[in-house]
Amino acid sequence: MRGNEQLAAIIESKRDFFIQISDKIWEYAETRFEEKQSAELLCQALEKEGFKVERGAAGIETAFIGSFGTGKPVVAILGEFDALSGLSQNRGVAAHNPIQEGGNGHGCGHNLLGTGSLAAAVALKQYMEEHQLPGTVRYYGCPGEEGGSGKTFMAREGVFDDTDFALCWHPAPVNGIMPGSSLANYQVYFKFKGRSSHAAASPHLGRSALDAVELMNVGVNYLREHIIQEARIHYAITNSGGTSPNVVQANAEVLYLIRAPKTPQVEEIYQRVCDIARGAALMTGTQVEIVFDKACSNLIGNSVLEEVMHKQFTKLGVPVFDESEKELARAIRETLTDEDKKMFRRMKGLENKDLADFLLPYSKAGLSVGSGSTDVGDVSWIVPTVQCITACMAIGTPFHTWQLVAQGGTSLGHKGMLHAGKVIAATALEVMQNPELLEAAKAELNQYLDEEPYVCPIPADVKPSAIK
Ligand SMILES: [Zn+2]
């Protein structure tokens, strides 16, 4: 049996073990930096498999590192396990059907992500043991990906500095390699403080913090025309100052998320947004406090590692779905809009299909699907990083929806998850056994860094924060 086949066989032999873990994390559905049960479950699984586990890595309670072996190369396999609020949904049901109204749900499939990466780490460890292969395999338990940039905080504390390369994946509606193309971002609170007063009897004595928030938002909406096309600015009013219109609101707060292809572009827009906030404070006679929440860098692809991963993915084939899984995908697609279904319209071969049954051709230019952000970006500035996507859901399923939650807790998601584990393990093994590949991958990253060295976008004094 070849190496990749052996790795796949190890994962298959522990199939039920991994599925149980994924389903438990799906049930826990804990949001950013509060993933205590999910993290502990993964830590215990790593210990059971013979990894040495460091809990509370990088000073973050729910971050951890499971390690096996000694010396070089050091392989970093990244896992996520956080859920999203408001997306509670029963598994396998093709209609909106929350388990708990307003509860959390795994709307980005991170229960699968964390467990698929665990499967890869476990398989690689067992293979290294059996073949007495030198090197270290580490599983990085990375909390708070959703709006928390856990990996960026971990990167700031240096936990990836002694690694040689990193691998990750993401559940998706298609099978392929994920090239570097995500957006850098900053997330920042603007807290306005005014003076309360009776809104009818003495409005002239009040200074409205809510007015300041509204004027700031108007100002930023005018800014949009004068920034680069690729940038995105989103906001949420996180404190409107109470529910009484007869009170002049003394406190109000707005949370901004600013995205652009590169961190310096985000920084430039951020400074202009800060000026607008100060202008709004000046106009309303209030004070503004600017509180940096989190940030992440754009993802740098690595064509050397991507080609290795694509080769291994081709050898392993794609997940094969049975009739009941196809039936669920069909039913889920009935609930999608035509626009949703057109999400991958530029990809040939996907028209009129419910589930992807092939591997997308590899292209360095990227998949050009969406323009989100990921904190894997920061890892990719420190070590060569590669990621794949595997089919875990019906084609057209939008991320962060109940439809994704429904599928991520079923055999449809499990199949894609175990497959991702196999692809990651096989890719890691090939790179470990061919030092010239690692050298070429590092040279490619260094060329990039020579022009633009990595600077962690999160200031030194900012701490990770849970959803308030
Ligand atoms: Zn995600």
Tell me roughly what share of residues is in helical segments. 25-40%
Our Rg estimate from Cα atoms comes to 23 Å
Number of strands: 11
* Cα-to-Cα separation, first versus last residue: 51 Å
Ions, cofactors and other bound molecules: zinc ion
Strand content: 15-25%
Mean pLDDT: 95
How would you characterize the largest beta sheet?
7 strands, mixed
- The neighbouring-strand order within the major sheet is 1-2-4-3-5-11-6
Number of helices: 14
Structural class: alpha/beta
Question: Could you characterize what this model shows?
Answer:
The protein is α/β, with parallel strands linked by helices and 468 residues long. It has helices at residues 3-13, 15-28, 36-48, 110-130, 150-156, 209-223, 263-284, 303-316, 323-334, 338-341, 376-380, 402-408, 411-433, 435-451; strands spanning 52-55, 64-70, 74-79, 135-141, 165-172, 176-178, 184-193, 232-239, 251-260, 287-296, 385-391. The longest helix has 23 residues, at 411-433. The chain is globular and about 85 Å long. The mean pLDDT is 95. Bound molecules: zinc ion. Zinc ion (ZN) is lined by residues 108, 110, 145, 170.
Topology:
Layout lengths: L2 H11 L1 H14 L7 H13 L3 E4 L8 E7 L3 E6 L30 H21 L4 E7 L8 H7 L8 E8 L3 E3 L5 E10 L15 H15 L8 E8 L11 E10 L2 H22 L2 E10 L6 H14 L6 H12 L3 H4 L34 H5 L4 E7 L10 H7 L2 H23 L1 H17 L17
Parallel strand pairs: 3-4, 3-5, 5-11
Antiparallel strand pairs: 1-2, 2-4, 6-11, 7-9, 7-10, 8-9
The structure holds zinc ion.
The site of zinc ion has 4 residues, from loops.
